[in-house]
Amino acid sequence: MDLLIILPFAIPPVVSSVGLLQIFADEPFMLVGTPWILIGTYFTITLPFMYRALANSFQGINLHDLMDAAHLLGASTFQAFMMIVLPNIRKGMLVSLLISFSFLMGEFVFANILVGTRYETLQIYLFNMRQTSGHFTSALVMSYFLFTLLLTWLAMRLNRSGDE
Question: What family, per the record (predicted)?
């Protein structure tokens, strides 16, 4: 199972893009050039990141005993999940969200090959703007950096407030 999870890390994005182009360029799917192929690709790219972070969180808690104790105290499965399991895996969920977000914000190859310039993602826009005004591109990259910094600070703040 771990080999299947690590496999997307081993395959270069160019190879994956060419494979996706061959699969989804013909009938019955015809998804190449649409935003749907990009959404599906991004989802499958982030799955290994999310899986590893959440698996580590689940390994850190004794889930079976916690659920049994909650059921003995009268909680339903949904209540036990919401009140016991989710707070215990909150850090793993936050880590998986931040890792996935940062990876997708830097991913250029899939967006460029699969949808080209039909749909401008942030990466394609930055690539196209590098040939125009250098000042505007620098300001855009700095804004992007500050947004990422703010998001990281907010995540750390939320994480710290949950520990107190």
Answer: Belongs to the binding-protein-dependent transport system permease family.
Q: Is it true that domain 2-116 has CATH number 1.10.3720.10?
A: yes
Q: Taking 70 as the threshold, does the pLDDT of residue 163 lie above it? A: no
Contact between 37 and 31 (Cβ < 8 Å): yes
- Torsion sign over Cα 136, 141, 145, 151: positive
How would you class 49 by CB atoms within 10 Å of its CB: exposed for 0-12, middle for 13-18, buried for 19 or more? Answer: buried
- Asked if residues 109 and 45 have their Cβ atoms less than 8 Å apart, the reply is no
C-alpha to C-alpha distance for 79 and 66, rounded to whole angstroms: 12
Q: Measured in whole angstroms, how far is the alpha carbon of residue 163 from the centre of its chain? A: 24
pTM above 0.85, yes or no: no
